[in-house]
Amino acid sequence: MVKVLLSSSARAYLRKEAQYLRQRSRPAAEAFLARMREARINLQRFPQMGFQKAGLPIPGMRSLIVDAYIIDYEVSADTVLILAVRPSQIPEASLTVDDDFDYEDDVGD
Q1: Residue of 36, 59, 61, 66 lying closest to 47 (CA atoms)
Q2: Which helix (H) or strand (E) element contains residue 52?
Q3: Which of 41-45, 61-65, 93-97 is predicted least confidently?
Q4: What pLDDT is stored for residue 52 in this prediction?
Q5: What element of type H or E holds 83?
Q6: Is residue 59 left, alpha or beta, with left meaning phi > 0 and alpha meaning psi from -120 to 50?
């Protein structure tokens, strides 16, 4: 089995979301944390279970939908790194690549 790690931003989001939910409904916060723990266990067993992100120039980048949240993660030989956890209503950041851009133009001017 692989090791599942959380980035600092993913860990901060989980804490913030759990705190937000706890203020409104303790059972909802407990259910959220249980689902996130379950997702980590599943990723440890099946790191390729999420879908690959089309169009991103980052090899190994995947996403997993867990209830109303999306977990963005990266898979390496022995590690799953959870990069971000976000509500599914928030669109992912897009990376646009300008294939016609001349990166060497105006160098040294």
Answers
A1: 61
A2: strand 51-52
A3: 93-97
A4: 86
A5: strand 79-87
A6: beta
